[in-house]
Amino acid sequence: MIRFASLGSGSKGNATLIESGAKDGDTRILLDCGFSTKALEARLANLERSAETLNAIVITHEHSDHIAGAGRLSRKYNIPVWLTVGTYHMCRDNDFAQTHFIDSHTDFEIDDISLHPFPVPHDAREPCQFVFSDGASRLGIVTDLGCHTPHILNHLKSLNGLLLECNYDQDMLFNGAYPKSLKDRVSSFKGHLGNEQSKDLLKKLDLTKLKHIIGVHVSEKNNTPEHALQALCEGMNCSPNDVSLASQSNGFSWRELS
Ligand SMILES: [Zn+2]
Ligand SMILES: [Zn+2]
């Protein structure tokens, strides 16, 4: 069984927990670490977990909202880190306790969890995103991507759970306070996924096995929870009760894929 929870999601920091196995988890992976060690420890405690029990840190790309605390956490608790060579070279603090390089086209395993990486268009050196599987169920996590591609849609087939970026509402972004250069960056094909694109992605997927859909990396300036939830509902053709969002302050609590 796969369990997952978010420690927080948004431009100020991202981290997700993925567990498999018995009640309290045989394998526990931290995907991204965009919080300080102290903040991460507190957020883990809120989810009744501790950093001592993490088997691995997996990094998607080098933006600070994904790696800010990775080096310190890895050294303090002797946790190995998995990431692409490109991401490794772009991390300011890459003095990890142990480093494992991943090929973003090659599946690999961390104990009893299989990871299926795939490259995504995003303005980082070698960004990738993942599907996690225990053989019985599949959890897709796409937090940072400028657009979806046939290759990405192919990887997101037959999911039981999906964490999907809903970064911005187009009108709010273009009428908002960001300088033009930042508006262009966020909305470019190597920036972030807006509500309309997330809705479009969902319409292109086979959702018959999907039990959990959670919007992530929701901008606090260029989006509202209402806009993001509406996009997910329209993409899924479902009621607001069937979709939810990860918050910057609390993420979301444990869920299970059975
Ligand atoms: Zn990013
Ligand atoms: Zn990000």
Topology, element by element:
Layout: E1 2-8, E2 15-20, E3 27-31, H1 37-46, E4 56-58, H2 64-67, H3 70-77, E5 80-83, H4 85-90, E6 98-101, E7 108-110, E8 113-119, E9 128-133, E10 138-142, H5 150-155, E11 161-165, H6 170-175, H7 180-187, H8 195-204, E12 212-216, H9 225-236, E13 244-245, E14 252-257
Parallel strand pairs: 3-4, 4-5, 5-6, 10-11, 11-12, 12-13
Antiparallel strand pairs: 1-2, 1-14, 2-3, 7-8, 8-9, 9-10
Description:
- The protein is α/β, with parallel strands linked by helices.
- It has one domain: Metallo-beta-lactamase, Chain A (4-Layer Sandwich), CATH 3.60.15.10.
- The strands form 2 sheets. It has a 7-stranded mixed β-sheet. A 7-stranded mixed β-sheet has the order 7-8-9-10-11-12-13.
- The N and C termini lie close together (6 Å).
- One zinc ion binds next to loops.
- The site of one zinc ion (ZN) has 7 residues, from helix 2.
In short:
The chain has 258 residues and is of the alpha/beta class. The chain has helices spanning 37-46, 64-67, 70-77, 85-90, 150-155, 170-175, 180-187, 195-204, 225-236; strands spanning 2-8, 15-20, 27-31, 56-58, 80-83, 98-101, 108-110, 113-119, 128-133, 138-142, 161-165, 212-216, 244-245, 252-257.
Helix content: 25-40%
CATH class: Alpha Beta
Q: Spans of 5+ residues with little confidence (pLDDT < 50)?
A: none
Structural class: alpha/beta
Q: What would the principal axes of the Cα set say about the shape?
A: globular
CATH topology annotation: Metallo-beta-lactamase, Chain A
Strand arrangement within the widest β-sheet reads: 6-5-4-3-2-1-14
CATH superfamily: Ribonuclease Z/Hydroxyacylglutathione hydrolase-like
Distinct bound molecules: zinc ion
What is the element string, with H for helices and E for strands? EEEHEHHEHEEEEEHEHHHEHEE
Oligomer: single chain
Radius of gyration over C-alpha positions, nearest whole angstrom: 17 Å
Strand tally is: 14
Task: Provide the domain count.
Answer: 1
CATH-defined architecture: 4-Layer Sandwich
The average pLDDT is: 96
Provide the β-strand percentage band: 25-35%
Figure out the total of helices.
9
